[in-house]
Amino acid sequence: MSQVVRFSVSLEAQLLEEFDRYCQTHQYPTRSEAVRHLIREKLNQDTWQANEQEVTATLTLIYDHHRSQLVSRLLELQHDHAEHVISTMHVHLDHDRCLEVIVLRGPARQLRGMVDRLRALKGVSFGQLVVASGEPRCAGSTPPVGRQGAS
Questions:
Q1: High-pLDDT (> 70) share of the chain, %
Q2: Which of 39-43, 87-91, 138-142 shows the lowest mean pLDDT across its residues?
Q3: How confident is the model at residue 12 (pLDDT cuts 50, 70, 90)?
Q4: Is the pLDDT of residue 87 over 90?
């Protein structure tokens, strides 16, 4: 576990009041927890913007499975990037629509291209990406399962 370091931040009174409302609305037990969360979120966003940084993310898609060739195109794109697709979950929402969650890992630039192509397919009505982690592994750490020897 990392050592906790304390630091101080100076804010205008109105900004602090808004931040306290944010903490209460989102049920953070302390301001520190909220600040940690916001810092991690911002760092993950910046990591996603960096072209070669390795990230872990989920892509949630909702699509019409009756759309001609859509399912085969979705699968083809995933197979074309099999080294980055860690897992998928498929859910039948109703007679026409399916939800698919794809867990991805790889360089942000490569994932960004794949995600853009998947979301742009005709018949996909919703596509949301969540970058879950952009933290580099510590030197000497073991690569995640399924990624041994990958570079």
A1: 86
A2: 138-142
A3: very high
A4: yes
Helices 108-120 and 70-80, axial angle in degrees (round to 10): 170
Closest to 89 (Cα-Cα) out of 60, 57, 130: 60
Order the strands of the 124-133 sheet from edge to edge.
85-92, 97-107, 54-64, 124-133
Cβ neighbors of 124 (< 8 A, separation 6 or more) are 61, 62, 63, 70, 118
Taking the C-alpha atoms of residue 115 and residue 100, their distance in angstroms, rounded to an integer, is: 13
CATH code, residues 54-133: 3.30.70.1150
Query: For 91-121, what is the HEC assignment?
Result: EECCCCEEEEEEEEEEEHHHHHHHHHHHHHC
d(CA 118, CA 61): 8
State the pairing for strand pair 54-64/85-92: unpaired
pTM of the entire predicted model = 0.67
Cβ atoms of 90 and 100 within 8 Å: the answer is: yes
Radius of gyration of the chain (CA): 19
Domain boundaries, the chain: 13-49, 54-133
